[in-house]
Amino acid sequence: MVKRKNRVTDLKKQNVPNTSLYNSPKVTPGRPLQLPEPSLAQLQRLTDKTGIFEHSTGIHSDKKHGYCAEDLGRALVAVLMYARHYTHPATHRLVDIYLKHLKHAQLEDGRFHHRTSAEGKLSRQIASGDDFGRVLWGLGYAVAYPLNDQMEALARQLFDRALLHIATSNIQTYSKATAYSVLGLHYYLKRYPKSSHAERILKGLADFMLYIYEENSSDDWCWFEDSVTYDNAKLPHCLLAAYETTGQQKYLDPARQSLDFLISVNFPDGQMMQVVGNRGWYQKGKECPRFDQQPIDAAGMVQVCAAAYRIFTLAKYKDKMISAFQWFLGYNTLGLSLYDASSGGSRDGLGPDGVNSNQGAESSIMYLIANLTVWETCGMTKQTDINQP
What we know:
The structure is a single chain. The chain is mainly alpha-helical. It has helices spanning 41-46, 69-83, 91-105, 130-144, 149-168, 175-191, 196-216, 234-246, 252-266, 295-312, 315-329, 361-378; strands at 3-4, 33-34, 56-57, 60-61, 67-68, 86-87, 112-113, 115-116, 126-127, 227-228, 282-283, 339-340, 345-346, 349-351, 354-356, 385-386. It has one domain: Glycosyltransferase, CATH 1.50.10. Strand 14 (349-351) and strand 15 form a beta hairpin.
């Protein structure tokens, strides 16, 4: 049985503007739109006693591809976010499975075997780039918001060992890995704010992000690189997290400038989110492709806009947060819903001819994180109607 931990909050008291939620093409104008209640169902369906399977066929796990470490990191964030608001009998089991898998996969130098077969055989491929950063993000969140002392101790053990890799690696070769590592350190420091070692690493990584922003940005291209590719929102998000952790103002202007640029790219009409497509990505000076669109980018936009709203208290960021979430519900280029109410998960992507009907780990995890982020930001604790214009 699922129990909510908090009372319902009246959205009218949260000053959610009437324009915050736009009509999905399949929603009748003038009628209230319901935000889906967060569900663990698809994550439970993809998880067995070893981990969460990376791929699916439809809603069911495709076991031949096994598990990957970055999905375990993401899943930790999703389940622990859920557990902060709900009491559910599955949360302890899921977190325990994900942490134990990461313990099994971690090397002495702090890195992780990236893949594990369905039979439990560790691959030779090592998570050392973006995938490593996503694991660190999940472990940091588990340190900040553990379900019990034993889980916190294990998450901290794995996190501290992973810091050894950051200290001796070239992780800054990968901008997304650097950004995710900053986010992981941000959460770790919520639990251990006096860890000068962790804070020093966070500042070093965040300062590197400032450096690449200054090197690559211009008046008409406020971005960290010469292309806008995949999982983009984590780059400005990490600077916002660095500011929240350190209080240093130097992170704020680049964070806001780059986020506003990313919003202009992803909301070309000012309202509906049109995710940067993966068929060539958006190269500086070239046309921005609009397919295929992936859930991780919409979810990342939800998260970074929520963080920006928390810091700057500007309504436009809350507005874009909810519009980005609406991408999952059908307010997108094709007017098709990626969210599956029957499974609680998200379909894997939006192509020019329709949706990818599979509901793998990345898509469903990131949808759940986005769903919970909207609820947290708007102060909601149950399914709530928001009137549309």
